[in-house]
Each structure stands twice: as C-alpha cells, then as structure tokens.
Backbone:
C-alpha cells in the first residue's frame, strides 16, 4: 500500500487540476503494470496519505474537489494564504463581473439578455472578462428567435470556488433574514 500511496501522491501533486479516480487508476495500471486497481484501493490509499499528513502536522492534505483529488491547504491556514494571494493577484473581479458571475452560476444556462434584464445594465464587458478568465463558458444556443448564446460556469469556476457541484453553492434561504420582525425572538 505504501508504494501505491507514493505513486498517488506524485500524481495528485503533479496534476494541474483535480485528478479523477479513473485517471489515477489508468496511470497506475499503466506505469506499475498492474492489471486492475480497484477504486476502493485508491480511496484507501488517499485516506492513508491524509492520515500521514495529519500525523506529521502538514498544512495541506488531499481533498475531493471538482470531480477529482487535489492537494489543498487546510482551512486553518486560509487567512495566511488569502493574504499572500491578495498581494500576488492584482487582477481581481470587479463588482459587475461578480454580479454577472453569480447570475450565471445560479441561472445557468442563461443568455446575455437575461443577465442584463436581472442586472438592469449591459454586461458585455463583464461577460467578455469572465470568458477570458475561463470562469464561464459557452454552453450552446437557445432555441428562441435569433438563437442567442447560452452561458454557464466552467470547471475552472468550480476549482476557483472550491466546490464539487453547482448544487454546493449557497442557497438564497441561507442568506434570508426574517422581514418585518419586531423586537427579539423568543427561544
């Protein structure tokens, strides 16, 4: 199992994006000359790697994200990493780009006119920048007059925000506050 763990660590480490179990299996079978590596063996090895990293006190571990596995920093180091990234990245998303991205994430697939209808202003520049940053992608064309382009979030969006599926986005009810409440609530 130790040899398997070392090879899995190497694969996860060198992968530029989350690596799927199927990719891990295929690479291990080919490189180690094994006929079959079971999903349970890969999962057990990943669990063993994470236990070793935990015992040794490392600041990172392997996380299941974006349909695969990736080395990520543990949550308790988020503030330090965020500070570093804030200083490193000068190209942030503007408020209009964030609004546009949120609309696309929650309403996808969605047309540019639908986004503009929700925002109340044009969104050509924001959509162009989000496409450039590969946070959104073209998902096809709508079956309406003029066949407008449909936009949706990309895999890079999932990786960037650390979610596995679009259903992992916070729901509106998570942010809702009771309206028309007077005084304190009784327990």
Residues:
């Amino acid at each position: 199992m130790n040899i398997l763990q070392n090879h899995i660590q190497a694969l996860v480490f060198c992968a530029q994006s989350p690596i799927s179990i199927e990719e891990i299996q295929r690479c291990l079978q080919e490189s180690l000359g094994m006929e079959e590596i079971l999903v349970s063996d890969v999962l057990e090895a990943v669990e063993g790697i994470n236990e070793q990293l935990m015992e040794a006190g490392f600041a990172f571990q392997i996380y299941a994200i974006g349909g695969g596995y990736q080395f990520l920093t543990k949550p308790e180091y988020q503030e330090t990493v965020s500070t570093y990234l804030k200083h490193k990245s000068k190209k942030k998303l503007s408020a209009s780009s964030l609004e546009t991205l949120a609309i696309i994430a929650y309403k996808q697939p969605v047309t540019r006119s639908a986004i503009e209808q929700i925002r109340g202003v044009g969104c050509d520049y924001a959509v162009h920048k989000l496409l450039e940053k590969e946070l959104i992608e073209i998902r096809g064309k709508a079956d309406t007059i003029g066949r407008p382009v449909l936009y949706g979030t990309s895999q890079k969006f999932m990786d960037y925000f650390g979610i596995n599926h679009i259903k992992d986005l916070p729901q509106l009810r998570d942010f809702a506050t009771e309206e028309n409440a007077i005084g304190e609530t009784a327990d």
Notes: The first strand starts at residue 60 and ends at 65.
